[in-house]
Design goal:
The complex is a heterodimer of chains A (309) and B (129). Chain A contains 14 helices and no strands. By secondary structure, chain A is an all-alpha fold. Chain A has a domain at 10-179. In chain A, helix 4 packs across helix 5, helix 4 (83-106) packs across helix 8 (154-170) and helix 5 packs antiparallel against helix 12. The longest helix of chain A is centred in the first third of the chain and has 35 residues, at 40-74. Chain A is globular, with a radius of gyration of 20 Å. Chain B is an alpha+beta fold and 129 residues long. Chain B has two domains: 1-28; 35-127, no CATH class. Helix content of chain B is 34%, strand content 29%. Chain B contains three helices and seven strands; from the N terminus they run ααβββββββα. Classes of the chains: A mainly alpha (309), B alpha+beta (129).
Chain lengths: 309, 129
């Protein structure tokens, strides 16, 4: 067993690149007068959320690492560390990312962690760094278990996950419109990910990909960005705060309040944590599907178009 | 990368980017130029409750919206806007206007600047709901 395998923490190493890229995007927008928007408090909030994410990784990373090492002790399989194993691991971890991300939008417990990434009404490179502080508590590390059990070393799996996150950094921009068709067909691009960040009914719950957009096409969640439906970034109900603590924990607080209401059945309490965001026991809120239906009632001409099929 | 170097990069990076953005004039709060702006911002977030009336604040950074069966508020949030339906939320009177404390943890308290006559208009509109 390759117990001593180590890889660099690529996300930490990429911090200088993140700062330089943000400055380049900012200069680009200032010079060209297009390609995105920056606002000081929004950007600073995103950066603080990013710093908090790194801090939470340092403080709580041992939980996931311990879990992975237990799995590594259990499994009799070891695929080694050759370059093609790393490549296969990267692709499979990207598939893992797709499902974790999909769960992140369809299970409120996981959404409570992921929601802060969507809480900015801007879409620029700082938005990419607006990351969760509470990912450990979603227990989504279990989705990585199969990779380790089939013989990919935990360090390699985390290394591939880090590369995946770095790839996703640069696609959080309006400065790049679209790439050649073959690139847009295979890769997750700024255009595809802009749609993912849209609060427009059309774009709700689409384009979960990390690196390869093929997963969305395979699993029926791909919606291309439409020229005639400009992406409106943010949440269906946008946050009214730049306070990082409120941003990090607001949905957890919401779950707690909903689950502890008087007069609910046990099933209803669990549904407030496990059903898709927007579920309510009395129908007073709208899920993504209901928001799409409400949109089609106001705009029947959109029926059958992308995102409404 | 050592923790010390990472800390310097993160703190320095955030402070540097904040300073650059501020000195580029990108901190200015959004203001509604007219009532129609506030209505558009409201209906962007609450399309199922079309506005029937609108009252801008004295500094044009917030607007009280009334709709059939209720009222709401839309306000500038950085370079953007946020809206909330006022379900049982009653404001506190302050020296400079009204203060709204929202029940949801995703909104900080909102202080709306209103002169005396505008404050009266807002309070009457809220009481009428």
């Amino acid at each position: 067993m390759t117990d001593q395998l180590t890889y660099p923490d690529v996300v930490q190493l990429a911090v200088p690149f993140f700062i330089i890229a943000i400055l380049i995007e900012l200069v680009w927008i200032a010079v060209k007068g297009r390609g995105g928007r920056y606002e000081t408090r929004d950007a600073v909030t995103s950066l603080i959320m990013g710093a908090g994410n790194v801090a939470s990784g340092i403080l709580l990373g041992f939980i996931a690492w311990g879990f992975f090492m237990v799995l590594w002790e259990i499994t009799p399989l070891d695929l080694g560390s050759s370059w093609w194993v790393v490549l296969i691991c990267f692709v499979l971890d990207d598939l893992r990312y797709y499902w974790v991300h999909r769960f992140g939008h369809r299970i409120r417990w996981v959404w409570a962690s992921h929601v802060n990434h969507h809480s900015s009404q801007h879409y620029n490179l700082t938005t990419a760094l607006r990351q969760t502080w509470t990912g450990t508590f979603t227990f989504m590390m279990v989705v990585r278990a199969p990779l380790i059990l089939v013989g990919f070393h935990p360090a390699m799996v985390l290394f591939c996950g880090g590369l995946n996150l770095i790839y996703q950094f640069w696609i959080h921009t309006e400065a790049i419109n679209k790439f050649p068709r073959w690139v847009e067909a295979v890769m997750n691009t700024p255009s595809h990910h802009r749609a993912h960040h849209g609060r427009n009914a059309r774009y709700l719950d689409c384009n979960y990909a990390g690196v390869l957009i093929i997963w969305d096409k395979m699993f029926g969640t791909f919606v291309p960005e439409q020229d005639d439906d400009k992406v409106d970034y943010g949440l269906v109900h946008n946050l009214g705060t730049f306070n990082p603590l409120r941003i990090a924990f607001h949905e957890w607080v919401g779950i707690y309040r909903d689950m502890t209401q008087r007069g609910l059945t046990l099933r209803e309490r669990l549904m407030y944590a496990l059903a898709p965001p927007g579920w309510s026991h009395d129908g007073s809120r709208k899920s993504s599907e209901e928001l799409k239906q409400a949109h089609l009632q106001r705009h029947p001409e959109d029926k059958g178009s992308a995102g409404f099929s | 990368m050592s923790l010390q170097v990472l800390l310097v990069l993160v703190v320095g990076g955030i402070a540097g980017i904040a300073a650059i953005l501020h000195f580029m004039g990108l901190t200015g709060p959004y203001r509604f130029s007219e009532g129609q702006d506030a209505v558009a911002a409201w209906e962007r977030e609450v399309p199922e409750r079309p506005a029937t009336n609108v009252h801008l604040s004295s500094d044009s950074r917030a607007s009280l919206i009334t709709f059939d069966g209720g009222s709401g508020i839309v306000w500038s949030f950085g370079d953007d806007t946020v809206a909330r339906i006022l379900e049982g939320t009653r404001p506190l009177e302050t020296k400079t206007g009204l203060r709204f404390d929202f029940p949801d943890f995703g909104s900080s308290a909102l202080n709306v600047r209103l002169n005396d006559s505008d404050r009266d208009i807002w309070l009457k509109a809220l009481e009428a709901q």
